[in-house]
Amino acid sequence: MNTATTTPLAAAAAAEPLGHGNAASHALIKPGYDPALTNEDLAPLKQQTWGQYNIFAFWMSDVHSVGGYITAGSLFALGLSSWQVLVALLVGIVIVQFFCNLVAKPSQVTGTPSPVICRASFGVKGANIPAIIRGLIAVAWYGIQTYLASAAFMVMALHLFPNLAPYADVAQHGFAGLSTLGWVAFMVMWVLQAVVFWHGMEAIRKFIDWAGPGVYVVMAILCGWLVWKAGWKNIDLNLGGVKFEGWDALPVMLSAIALVVSYFSGPMLNFGDFSRYGKSFDAVKKGNFWGLPVNFVFFSLLTVITTAATLPVFGELITDPVHTVGKIDSTTAVVLGALTFMIATIGINIVANFVSPAFDFSNVAPQHISWRTGGMIAAVGSIFITPWNLYNNPEVIHYTLDILGSFIGPLFGILIADFYLVRRQHVVVDDLYTMKPTGLYWYSHGYNMKAVATMVPSALIPILCVLVPAWRGAANYAWFIGMGLGFVIYALLSRRS
Questions:
Q1: Which of 78-82, 119-123, 158-162, 216-220 has the highest mean pLDDT?
Q2: How many alpha carbons fall within 13 Å on the CB side of residue 316?
Q3: CB 455 within 8 Å of CB 449
Q4: CA–CA distance, 214 with 24 (Å, rounded to integer)
Q5: Distance (Å, whole) CA 445 – CA 422
Q6: Measured between alpha carbons, how far is 340 from 427 in angstroms, rounded to an integer?
């Protein structure tokens, strides 16, 4: 019986180039694996080839986006001094790094994606519960990120062809709340992302390997130009002015730390979808170090300097990089800037909101839904939710995404408690792919009721923090509350086994 503790499954396999979603030879499918739980995308990998740079590039693609830019800038507008924000950023991202290392190991040592490793804690059928939850969250964010990227396309199109302005007005030419030009921009971005995804994981790896560094180069040029125009003396990094000092700043700093962790909670939960490709756990840890604390803090500094420089240059503080680019008179600068933020957003959308639901939805019905089909389900679903209407209504997006996000913490806590406390880092890989009652992960008809029972209070309390006005102060810490409850309750229930 095949087991995994600390040695990657791939070590026993013959060397082959990594391909995904297009060749069964890259997966280790044994004759005893149940077809209802297995396809070439969900089976363990024969070879794991990603080094620390590939993981580093993954995080660059995840950080470098319009959403990441606005999030980083918003932290500096909380009323804290620059050094307080940097401390909060560093503490928050180190917490993310710590948890990413924890969640990376089970998938790296088994060569399996996140929904499959969840079978150990939820059962071979129960794993569909976290898979569907995460898939639904990804659909919402996929649509929103595609919409944000399309805004950059519209800026470029209107700069090059000003006569298209009437078609950018939803009142004159529009449908379902989006202008005609907006629809064109959205669908162009939608198709571009689908093309990259459809070519498989090797194409995605190549894309993120150059996209992240490429975005840095252009952002550095934009930052340098704005600083040169503004003059360093005229740049104030305290965007919102210093309002909190001494101990009064501590609650605000804690909120900033929680915001950083919450921002990465989605990719963190499904990081196993990428760590499974790591050559070794050490390579994954090194990639996480360079891609998270080092990369995120540097990106945040670049972001806040760029944002702060917009005030003396344009006479207003601009937190949206697409809007900043649109203010520049140079056609070359506008085109280059727009393309950069389009590429950046494509990067985060593919790694955070395309690959993960592809595995998640495939896990629901492996015989009928391949990795590619699962990803396209998420992509098509993102159109029908009309993300522009979702994004333009802060109250709707707040409740929708916060309620869905309330499930992420408990899922994470259960997964970590199961692997490290209950199983002591020991997973029987073959049993992840069998429905025989003798399999370790069959439990009760394929469901581990301890995990299901843990989800109820662990998710309910964070949801109440979002919905109940009196509890609203704890909403920023919903992920920590859910994760802690999930970890403790599941560990206590499992002690009886």
A1: 119-123
A2: 6
A3: no
A4: 33
A5: 20
A6: 42
Mean predicted confidence (pLDDT) in 236-252: 78
* pTM for the model: 0.85
Question: CA 103 to CA 114: how far, in whole Å?
Answer: 9
What is the three-class DSSP state of 3? strand
Instruction: Round to whole Å and give the CA distance between 52 and 61.
Output: 14
Q: Which CATH number, 1.10.4160.10, 1.10.287.380, 2.120.10.30, 3.40.50.960, labels domain 54-102+123-406?
A: 1.10.4160.10
- Run of H or E residues at 387: helix 387-391
Cα–Cα distance between 64 and 278 in angstroms, integer?
22
Q: Which residues pair with 418 in a beta bridge?
A: none
pLDDT band for position 2 (cuts 50, 70, 90): very low
Residue owning tokens 């990081």: 271
What pLDDT band is residue 16 in, cutting at 50, 70 and 90?
A: very low
CA atoms within 13 A on the CB side of 369: 15
Find out whether 117 and 425 touch, Cβ atoms under 8 Å: no
Is 128:365 a contact under the CB 8 Å cutoff? Answer: no
**Residues composing the chain:** 497
Which residue in 68, 250, 58 sits closest to 145, CA to CA? 68
- Residues 364-376 pLDDT 10s: 999 998 888 888 8
Structure tokens at 408: 């992420």
| Alpha helices for 111-200 (secondary structure H) | 114-117, 119-122, 128-160, 180-198
The gap between the terminal CA atoms of the chain, to the nearest Å, is: 22
Q: Give which of 422, 407, 417 is closest to 482, Cα–Cα.
A: 407
Say if CB 122 and CB 130 are below 8 A apart.
yes
User: Could you tell me which residues come within 8 angstroms of residue 214 by beta carbon, excluding any fewer than 6 positions away?
Assistant: 340, 343
444 has which bridge partners? 447
Q: From residue 282, how far is each of 53, 101, 201, 373, 427 by CA, in Å?
A: 12, 10, 21, 32, 19
Reported as a single tens digit per residue, the pLDDT across 273-330 is: 999 999 999 999 999 999 999 999 888 888 888 888 988 998 888 877 777 887 887 8
Phi-psi label, residue 241: left if phi above 0, alpha if psi -120 to 50, beta otherwise: left
Q: How far is the C-alpha of 432 from the C-alpha of 120, rounded, in Å?
A: 7
Answer for the pair 320, 391: CB distance below 8 angstroms, yes or no: no
The domain limits of the chain are 54-102+123-406
Can you state the percent helix, strand and coil of the chain, rounding each to 5? 70, 5, 25
Q: What are phi and psi of 491, to 5 degrees?
A: -65, -40
Residue 480 sits at the vertex; the CA angle it makes with 455 and 62, to the nearest 5 degrees, is: 100
Check if the beta carbon of residue 116 is closer than 8 Å to that of residue 363: yes
Q: Are 153 and 185 in contact (CB under 8 A)?
A: yes
